[in-house]
Amino acid sequence: MRFRQTLQHLKEGVVIYETPDHGESFFFSYINQSGEQIAKINAAEVMGQNLTDALPGIKNTPLLQTLRQVYETGEPVLEKLFLYEDDIRSMWVENSVYKLPTGEIVAVYTDITQRKMIQDALSRRDAILEAITYSSQMFLKTLNWEDSIASVIAKLGEAAEVSRAYLFKFSSQNMNASVASKVLEWIDPTIQENLANFGLNQINFTELPIRNWYTSLIKDEIIFGRSQEFSHAECKWLLSKSIHSIVLAPIFSSESLWGFIGFDECKVE
C-alpha cells in the first residue's frame, strides 16, 4: 500500500497490470494521477478493465509485445518509444516496463510528444541545410544549371519531406507575363501514381483563382500556408489539385521575376 502511495506523487505515469491468463491479457490494477493525465483516462473507469479495451490504439503499438516479453523473461525493457493514436489521443510515449515479484507488470511512461516534435524539426532542418549545401556544390560543379537542377529539386523535396517539388519559369515570349511553364517536377515515389494526374504543365495566374499570387511573387514574397488558410476559391483550387499545403518561393534574375520553386504536401496538413 505504501508503495502505491509513493507512486501517486511521481510526475511520470505509472500503471500496474494484472495478467490472470499469464501474459495473454493485461488488466488495470493501479494507475497514478500523472498516468491518468497523460493517458487522458479516469482511474475509476478503467480499473479492472482490459488494456486494449481502455486504450484500443495499443493494438497498433509494440507495447503489448513488450509487456508479454517482460512477463515471460522477467527482464525489464527501458525507454521503449512508440506513437499512440486513437480517436481522441495522439502522442509519442516513452515506456519502461518491469515485472514485480507478485507477477504484476509495471509500466512507467512519459509523454514526449513535444520533445519528439523538436527532434524531428531539428532533423528536418539539418536535412534541408544539407540539401542546400548539396545544391550549391552542384551549381558550382556545372557550367549549365540545367544539368544539375533535377537532382537539386529532388534533394530539396526529399529533405523537406513533401509530396511534390517543382520549378516553374515565366515565359518571356508570352504576351501575358503571368504565364509560367513547368521546367521540372519531383514527386515522392511512394505516392507518385496518386499525383500523376494532378500536376500542371502551365499556370496562367490571371485565369485562375490564385491571380493575386503573381502580384506577391513580383514583390518577392513567399506564398505559403494550408489550403484552409487561403480564400474559399483558392482553397477549392488547391484541393482540386490534391494540395493540402503549399510553399512557393520566387526566383529572380537580374532583378526580374524569373520563376518560382514550389513544394506541395498532398498527404497530410
- Report the major sheet: 6 strands, antiparallel
The number of helical segments is 10
Chain-averaged pLDDT: 85
Roughly how many Å is the radius of gyration? Answer: 26 Å
Shape: elongated
Alpha-beta classification: alpha+beta
- How much of the polypeptide forms β-strand, as a percent range? 25-35%
Strand order of the largest sheet: 8-7-6-11-10-9
Uncertain stretches of 5 or more adjacent residues: none
The strand count comes to 11
Task: Characterize the structure shown.
The protein is of the alpha+beta class and 269 residues long. The chain is 35% helix and 29% strand. It is built from ten helices and eleven strands. The chain has helices at residues 2-7, 33-39, 43-46, 51-54, 63-73, 113-141, 149-160, 192-195, 211-218, 232-240; strands spanning 13-18, 27-31, 77-85, 90-99, 105-111, 164-170, 179-187, 202-204, 223-226, 245-253, 256-265. The strands form two sheets. It has a six-stranded antiparallel β-sheet with strand order 8-7-6-11-10-9, with helices on both faces. A hairpin with a 5-residue loop joins strand 4 (90-99) and strand 5 (105-111). Helix 6 runs antiparallel to helix 7 (149-160). It is elongated, with a radius of gyration of 26 Å.
